[in-house]
Every structure is written in structure tokens, then in C-alpha cells.
Amino acid sequence: MSLHLAEISLAVAPGAHAVVLMDQAGWHMTGKLDVPHNISIVALPAKCPELNPVENIWQFMRDNWLSNRVFTSYENIVDLCCEAWNKLVDQPWRIMTIGRRKWARRS
């Protein structure tokens, strides 16, 4: 997670500050986490997946491409998950629609 935050930090414009929303998974909130100076972490309340848009993305992928199938091997699982991810990445409008929250919009 520290390496991931370091990569995000590199993408933050000079003089800007990033806010990263995270659930309270142990690896997200550990005291050992090295948080760069230009990033703040905002922890989402525990057990509130409706506040975390990525949970809706995972659910969409399961519902549309990954559920109700029999996987033949570990490699088959990885291949099909990569295929589903690539389908999603090819549809940025869908990602925006799934992750959007009407109640979180500014008026």
C-alpha cells in the first residue's frame, strides 16, 4: 500500500494535495503505512460499502462477467478476471456511471 501511495503522490501536481478515500482494511490503516506529505487519507466508516464506489464496480463485474461460471484452473480465473477488467476499462463512461452518487453531487 505504501508503494501505491508513493505512485499516487508522483501524479499530484506540485503544490497540490490529494485526498484518498479508503475503507478500513488493515493494510489501508496500519500505523506502518508510509503516507507521502502531499496525500491525506480519509477513512470510510466501517461496514459501509455503499460509500465506497469501487464496491459497486466489483459488483458490476461479478454480475456481468464473472458470476455463474465454473473455472477450470487458477490460470483460467486470472485470464477471465483480466478479460473482465479490460472490458470495463474500455468503457470509461460505465465506470463513471457506476461510481457516481446522486447524493454526493455539489449543487
UniProtKB/TrEMBL annotation:
One GO molecular-function entry: nucleic acid binding
Domain Tc1-like transposase DDE as annotated: residue spans: 16-76
Gene3D superfamilies in UniProt: Ribonuclease H-like superfamily/Ribonuclease H (3.30.420.10)
Pfam hit, one: DDE_3
The protein, known as: Transposase
